[in-house]
Amino acid sequence: MKHLVILAIFLALIFLQSRVGSFSEFPNPAQALTVPVPPSAVPNAHYPSNRAPLAVSPLVKLPVGAVEPRGWLMAQLQLMRDGLTGRLAELSRFLGDDSGWVTLKGKGWEEMPYWLKGYGNLGYLLKDAAMRKETERWLLLAFKSQTRDGFFGPADNRGANDLWPNMIMLSALQSFYEATSDRRVLSLMSRYFQYEFHLPAEELLPGSWQKLRGGENLESVYWLYNRTGESFLLDLARRLFTRTSDWTSPILSPARDKDWVESSFYHGVNIAMGFREPGIYFQQSRDQSLLEAVERNYRQVLDRYGRQPGGMFGADENIRPGKDDPRQGAETCTMVEAMASFESLLKITGDPVWADRAEEVAFNSLPASMTPDLKALHYFTAANLISCDSSAEHDFQNSGTLVSFDPWGYRCCQHNVAFGWPYFAEHLWMATADNGLAATLYAPSEVRAKVAEGADVSIAEETCYPFEDQIRLTLSCDRPVTFPLYLRLPGWAKAVQILINGQPVEGSFAGGRYAVLNRTWRHGDEVRLEFGPQIEVFEWPSRRGAVSVRRGPLWFSLKIGERWQRYGGTEIWPALEVLPTTPWNYGLVFEGPEAAASVRLASRNAPPFQPFALDAAPIVLRAKARRVPDWKAEGRMAGLVPASPAKGEGPVEEVELIPMGCARLRISVFPVVKD
Length: 675
What we know:
8-stranded mixed β-sheet, 32% helix, 29 strands, alpha+beta
């Protein structure tokens, strides 16, 4: 009898399995773990990862084209193609046939490689044949330029012993290889690094930009080593780390502060690019103190100069003592370079905080730096910016027109901005060392990748995030496949709910970690994340009681009326000013002990094709405020944020707050006014 009972149970289990497909799909709540970072015991089996003796990468970038952006993110790429990036040859004197990258004899510095680095990736993501052809035209010239000893590029760069422009071109070549598997890239890079390897020490990164930005060169050396395994590359990496400027010491220290003359070290773009360099070399040294130096230096700069929303710091050319008010701007170049550093450190460490930081810049500061049609940008973007005019009446270190939207007047930024959105899109999804997939940044997209023992899967990500609070993932595969799916839980998220096929997943899911769903997946399986962000009022340390308003990944700014007027350029490519038509000098009024209770959600709408525009804001908040008459403009800039509590006058008004990225004029850091 006992045997018959056991047999009956066994047959019943077989019947149930045939009905539901697998034991993991029983209609019981699923379970999931959370981890601080994905494991990194052995390298990913399907995508080039760190070879021994380099430390195993917990996250591995997928090849260009594996991630297909959709929705509002695809719209940004299409606007780029039809705007400044795609048509920059109509404007830039550096992209003509007299460029040193064409003649190989004249001048050809950073501008063309800066642009090509993003333009090419944009073409790959959009599957645009004309853009791909134009990218290959420039790259073929680079191949042609290589000399017998391995150097490539314009002769003037070699004459100046300047390796910096080539560092950027190497990034464009790497993307080309990922998109085409063209082995000429590996040959060119190997020969070029042999050239670097045989340079006398004093001639390798002797000074200027190349010395400060040597981490870019180091990253490309590791990229090649992971594909060829040539041992000399590790020796070259040691030399490059030694010869690059010292980013392991504190950026801000009495020793350095007393000699502010050496300003290039404090240049905003140099900081955004250079601070990650110890983290890059960590992969070879495995010295944990290098990662600690990266975080310390990032925090130092943000704590002193980044007391503002949007993820950036005030370096209107350089960080400067006493210039730390939210009216001090950040270069558009600095934004995209900071995002690239965050994306790099995310791969190296797996730490989700770097993804949080990349999203903060991408969703808030970067869109605010450009016109909604992406046909122009300005040099500086500030958290408090009340006039985008063409005058020089701004307390910035640089001179001339800096905040108007001029497609003709900005040299580096209009070229360098090209890779901001494409690189962001490519890092939405990454492979994991244990042959799984990780959703690392969130935006509408679809990823196609190999997992487990080589199975092909695709995951469609449907969302309007950051304007929506849900992420919906739908998996497609030819057969059941078991692999871990890592879901980044944003650091701002107090609690996240996860559902699989409509069933809640058991567990406590707070921000700053990954949820790991390790199960047998079947075609059509669905995962849903629900974030439930709350409105928060953030008080900035040492900003005399000033506050900003945040909801999830979005910072909010006072909605200021905008008057756009042309002051130069052409009909097709106008240079534009944006001037205020409504008051800006408001302080926020809070009632009761909870400041956030005085700010309410006023409206939510599905984002249009271009959500980053004043009247297209998908989310609008309302807050109580009063005018602060003593807060006046200084020239064309907002005055320093008054100490709180500030003296308000007039009636309490209800003002609109819109996402920072939707506002070209904005107050994002407010004094508090006592009612």
